[in-house]
Amino acid sequence: MHPVEHQILQKRREFLATSANGIGALALGALLTEEGLISRASAMDADPLLPKAPHFPAKAKNCIFIFFEGGPSQMDLFDPKPKLNELNGQALPESMTKNVRFAFIRKETAKLMSSPRTFAKHGQCGMDFSDLLPHMAKHADDWLMIRSLHTDQFNHHPGQLVLHCGRAQFGLPTIGSWLNYGLGSMSRNLPGYVVLSAGRGTSGGASLWQSGFLPSTYAGVLFRNQGEPVLNLKNPPGIPMSLQRKGLDTLIELNQSRYEHLRDPEIASRISAYELAFRMQSSAPELIDLKGEDEKTLEMYGVNRKDPPIKASRGGGPGQYQAFAKNCLLARRLVERGVRFVSLMHASWDHHSNLNDELGYNAGMADQPIAALLTDLKQRGMLEDTMVIWGSEFGRTPLGENRGGNPNATGRDHHPFAFTMLAAGGGIKGGQTYGETDEIGWSVVRDPVDLHDFHATLLNQFGFDHLRLTHRFQGRDFRLTDVSGRVIKEWI
Q1: How far apart are CA 211 and CA 193, in angstroms?
Q2: pLDDT single digits (tens) 108-145
Q3: Count of CB atoms within 10 A of residue 223's CB?
Q4: Is the pLDDT of residue 9 over 60?
Q5: Residue 383's closest CA among 130, 144, 32?
Q6: Are 224 and 233 in contact (CB under 8 A)?
Q7: Which of 128, 177, 276, 288 is positioned for an S-S bond with 211, CB 3.0–4.6 A?
Q8: Residue 20: what pLDDT?
């Protein structure tokens, strides 16, 4: 008999009993652990997503990373600049722009552009928020506002790779992949890393939730917030679960045969994905079914809000207010069920024109649900160990966009030299504004923060020394923070 035929004919019980050193240990180890027959430590090497211990006690267990693709305008949301308003319409000295690369601005006619926004101080800490974010402003004492971030990338996709992967290079793991690699997942029926998307889609696409050179087990899984959570998750009509289970068992056996020949960890990742998909057939539909949420919660998030009218497509078209609100509520439900890292993505905030109307539209979409997410987590006692991040790849220029020589600038260009991000929960010290930019928001003048510093501090909250969380690939030990990064103690 051919060896493959022999494997197919083996019973599942025989396969699991004789495959302790191969892929069978993934299923066997998980089953025995859940039944309390063996310890988690003895099953650790078999299932890469079983929970693991960090380097030291962690403050954070989960992360919800809200990524607004395109670069929200910091001087219209978080960083008021009265001097910029005073100098509206004036040109910058040539010395300031001589060696600067812009995406679209024409240096010879570029002028400073004021902000029409009204700012006020909020909370006991007196944190500045513009009038576009009244709900988030109520959580001023929970937020850490970082005004002094900078990056070396001025275009979208490279900047997004630095934010998510640490370098502007393809094939590197994202933050969510690193955390699942280091900590494993607390959920057995859902992926450890889930991506929820709204808007028109990010320019970086799937490269922003890839596992890179790590096994594909650690990649993000893109969920939809309506219909099937994951495409093709349901069985075809007429296919019972029992038949699917038999087919899956056969695939396990065939993959085991191949694994024993090649010892390729991707084969283990493949069978792990099959098993997880089988379990998700019941858990994922329950996740997106919001019937169990009370009306007060749905109203707080704004799940049934209608979009205000706007003649623009940059925010993603109709239905975005409901879609983003639902994603924020799903993020809470995901971490509640043990998902380690949830990435919420919305595109686009790339306002080269029509800034006032389009930023107002996007801010209105984001403000209420994000504030509700913090309120909800706090009420459930989850904010202490769930980190919530608002971030983007860069900010916007204090100069108005003058593409095509148009003297009536109505937007701002990409600005990597100084931008703002926010974080709350997970042991982060709220109610503080860190860093400072100059009087027009051009550059950082106090407490500069490289994105690797941000990554190092994030990993610290999850119990990792960023210098020691590494993976050897092509003869080199890689890490999220590449060859730099420092933990910023003032944030903790």
Answers
A1: 10
A2: 889 999 999 999 999 999 999 999 999 999 999 999 99
A3: 23
A4: no
A5: 144
A6: no
A7: 177
A8: 41
For 55, half-sphere exposure in the C-beta direction (CA atoms, 13 angstrom radius) is 13
Q: How many helices and strands (H and E) does the chain possess?
A: 15, 17
**Angstrom distance (rounded) from CA 301 to CA 288:** 15
Residue 476: give the domain boundaries: 60-234+295-491
Q: CA-to-CA distance for 374 and 390, rounded, in angstroms?
A: 12
Q: Is residue 155 part of a domain?
A: yes
What does the pLDDT look like over 15-32, one tens digit per residue? 443 344 444 444 544 454
3-state secondary structure of 147: strand
Predicted TM-score (pTM) of the model is 0.87
For tokens 């812009």, name the residue.
102
Share above pLDDT 90 across residues of the chain, in percent, rounded to a whole number: 70
Choose from 247-251, 289-293, 399-403, 460-464 the range with maximum mean pLDDT.
460-464
The answer to whether residue 286 is domain-embedded is no
Residues 363, 378: Cα–Cα separation, whole Å: 22
For the residues of 375-421, what is the DSSP string, one character each? HHHHHTT-TTTEEEEEE-S-EEEEEEP-GGG-SS--SEEEE-SSEEE
Q: What are phi and psi of 379, to 5 degrees?
A: -60, -30
Q: Which two tokens stand for residue 292?
A: 């169990």
Find, among 440, 265, 442, 412, the residue nearest to 351 by Cα: 412
- Say whether pLDDT at 215 is over 70: yes
Residue 33 counted as domain residue:
no
Whole-Å CA distances, 147 to 58, 67, 297: 26, 16, 32
Backbone angles phi, psi at 385, to 5 degrees: -120, 15
Worst-scoring range by mean pLDDT, 215-229, 298-312, 457-471? 215-229
- pLDDT of 407 reads 67
- 3-state helix/strand/coil string of 46-68: CCCCCCCCCCCCCCCCEEEEEEE
Q: Does 348 sit behind a cis peptide bond, omega within 30 degrees of 0 on the bond before it?
A: yes
C-beta of residue 246 within 8 angstroms of C-beta of residue 253: no
Segment 225-239, tens digit of pLDDT: 777 777 666 777 777
| pLDDT of 42 | 32
| Per-position DSSP letters for 160-188, written without gaps between them | HHHHHHSSS-TT---HHHHHHHHH--S-S
CATH code: domain of residue 405: 3.40.720.10
- What total number of domains does the chain contain? 1
Under a CB-based contact definition with an 8 Å cutoff, are residues 143 and 430 in contact?
yes
Report the distance separating Cα 157 and Cα 222, nearest Å: 19
Q: Is 54 in contact with 463 (CB distance < 8 Å)?
A: yes
- Asked if 175 and 265 touch (Cβ cutoff 8 Å), the reply is no
Strand partners, 346: 68, 198
Instruction: Say if 244 falls within a structural domain.
Output: no
Per-residue confidence (pLDDT) for residue 232, from 0 to 100: 67
> What is the Cα–Cα distance from 377 to 386, expressed in whole angstroms?
8
Strand partners of residue 388: 64, 424
